[in-house]
Write a structure and sequence with these properties.
The structure holds two protein chains of two kinds. Chain A is mainly α. Chain A is built from 14 helices and five strands. Chain A has a two-stranded antiparallel sheet. By secondary structure, chain B is α+β, with helices and mostly antiparallel strands. Chain B folds into two domains: about 190 residues, Sulfite Oxidase, Chain A, domain 2 (Alpha-Beta Complex), CATH 3.90.420.10; about 120 residues, Immunoglobulin-like (Sandwich). Chain B starts with 11 loop residues before the first helix and ends with a strand. The N terminus of chain B is likely disordered. The chains are: A mainly alpha, B alpha+beta. Strand 4 of chain A pairs parallel with strand 14 of chain B.
Chain lengths: ~350, ~425
Amino acid sequence: MSRSLKFLAPISAAIIIAAPVLAQQTLGLGRDALPDEIAAWDIDIRPDGLGLPAGSGDVWTGEEVFVDKCASCHGDFGEGTGRWPVLAGGAGTLSNADPVKTIGSYWPYLSTVYDYVNRAMPFGEAQSLEPDEIYAITAYLLYMNDLVDDDFTLSDENFLDVEMPNAGSFYMDDRAETELLIFATVPCMENCKDSVEITMHASVLDVTPDVADEEEAVVEEAAAEPAEAPTVALDPVLVGAGEGAFRQCKACHQLGEGATNRTGPVLNGMIGRSVGSVDGFRYSGVFHEAAQAGEVWTQESLAAFLADPRGTMSGTKMSFRGVRDAAEIEALIAYIQSFDG
Amino acid sequence: MSEIFKGMKPSRRNFLKGAAASGAALVGGTNAAKAAGDPAILEKQPWAQFLGAGVDEAPYGVPSKFEAHVRRQNVPWLTADPVSSINFTPLHELDGIITPNGLCFERHHAGVAEVDPSAYRLMINGLVDRPLVFTMQDLMRFPRENHVYFLECAANTGMEWAGAQLNGCQFTHGMIHNVMYTGIPLRLILQEAGVKTAGKWLLPEGADASGMTRSIPMEKAMDDCLVAFKMNGEALRPEQGYPVRLVVPGWEGNMWVKWLRRIEVGDQPWHHREETSKYTDLLANGQARRFTWEMDAKSVITSPSPQMPITHGPGPVVMTGVAWSGRGTIPRVDVTIDGGMNWHEARISGPSLNKSMHRFYYEFDWDGKPLLLQSRAHDSTGYVQPTKEQLRSVRGENSIYHNNGIQTWAVDAEGVAENVEIS
């Protein structure tokens, strides 16, 4: 008896220690998230207004910010350039053969606009906008979609008053009722139809990419322009730093083999080239003027432009605030020059 | 032979190049004795005479140089910029059920985030008892599981809603891959933080410059979601979310948030951009379905197909393809070679796993006459893959996502295959 008690005592002690852990079913891994850490990452906004910061912005300010930071892809009036998203118009088209799904015609909640602009825009420079700028852009988007007048100011106080016109047109997945049972039938296996006709050929549209042709084109181009050794010896460390800094340019500009004009022109061989001279790129007026005046890109002129794009080339459609750090500018130019060959 | 078929169009030029290079007779029995001996046998080949590369030549091995044509490819006209775009898995070149990591299609919204694992943090916040932060080392101390799942983009086959458009199963069906994930059941991580009673929804968020977010109901999170860090045994590839991604089995790929940095618990969904503006299904009447998470049962014949014509002439043909369902397994696949007049049950080979790709085969003796090839998947719920017409009768033609209609390849007398629709 005494023997078994000796054995029981430590066992029950162990149970008492283990019990709280078992009740919580935790492993005790990780650490508490600090309030400022949560605040830094928890930026999401919900339709009920949860997460909206204090702030406000009006339509006219919104237009300025939009033209500055958004229009190079979305167009001055949200019409979209190239295949970038159209943001305005399309009301009443959702049941047409070619529906135009925009913020005004399709999006059910305004909070989605604020959240998305805040977390992901401008493309390539995410989370750089201040709350007042986002309220202003959102107000301008509402204005472009004919949902508010031009004297409208949007703020955290009146945000929930704005109703989106298409909010009532969404409903929960109903495939269980409308599709699953209908399609779950025993299918025919033999003599299921008398004849079969081809009703459409993909080759009629002919939109399949053809790799072989692309490869040939690249090879021909490379052969036509034999590479020359760079005339300036570049500091590889500086070039490496420039490669990192170039990330902020990549959304619009390409460099290197196979580079093409995107939202911005190709930058290969930029130093020593006439300003505004890349074939096939549609420059803003100020670049045409510089080209006619015979201006040429030098390290000095490029450094000045990068430091203050709109100050040096007033009217440029490049929506970029500029680079403050002189060392970063030097690195960027070295990186661009490394593609001069 | 197949390296000749770099061109994706089933053009006559490419076809003839392929047939000539194959060295096989286009017509007649291929087992007839040749008039002259085969130089591939009679002449000494360099690899049979000289020494090859030693070990360590490629510390991380790469495919044979003769397989250089097997690669992901995008459709440049589809998106504005390759930084926010998609490419396609070369399904026509693959066999079995596992997709090699380097061939898994990519879809990014702001390019590939290069996350340093030493600076990686996963935060759990919102309606939890204890908001927590985990490092990679913390995550490695949770119990982990291995599961093979397909990941299909909801937009897979989306370009085909209005009719046959692209010639090649890579382009019509290549927004899918199937790999084995190693990861932590999400419920274990949630239990660690303690979900409050009101917590019914999750918002996983990516660390990339798009800050990808989706709302996921708590039942799914507690059921089979994984916080994964390995694919096919090795670390996730950067383009697949290195170092950590969410796995949401059977549900649309957009929800499998890559570069996962945060999971918030809430009492209602967030209705963010990717679940309102995108990934909702606009029907013909202008109304739209939301939260169409599950991927319906689907299949496609990967060979013969436009990128994989028949180059050997009449005789035995191996027809093969893949099938999958977001609701379970695929117990049966039917195939037809006459456009659906008569169907045959295909042979499934390889493991039949829940919410994973299945591989099927149908071998037949080709008489050299034109063929109309289709496959039709049945899933373990009794659902049967519908025709495109059946789908359009319910959804109209304005949908983008969840097109799981039966695919048709027309093969002509020369073996060239084309994407078509039939009556």
